[in-house]
């Protein structure tokens, strides 16, 4: 399973610990897709920040975020629809950089 397939799997399961483990110790997750749902851009730096944020996000969301119509463009790009409360947002996720151990150094998520 590619790192992006693992990322989608963790988001669909609501597993913040496994999600955070995909990231390098200093890995960055930048998600501006939430803007389309009236929320502030998420910019997280570090594995611990990813775990803490998604622990709260999954909790406040009542579980994992619904993700559907996933299309893997290549090993570094995936398109999907994610539901933030009542807003369905089409997004693209770009895996910009991984480290020598295959951990995410930077993942950018943008609305389509």
UniProtKB/TrEMBL annotation:
Xref: InterPro entries: NTF2-like_dom_sf
Domain of life: Bacteria
Name of the protein in question: Nuclear transport factor 2 family protein
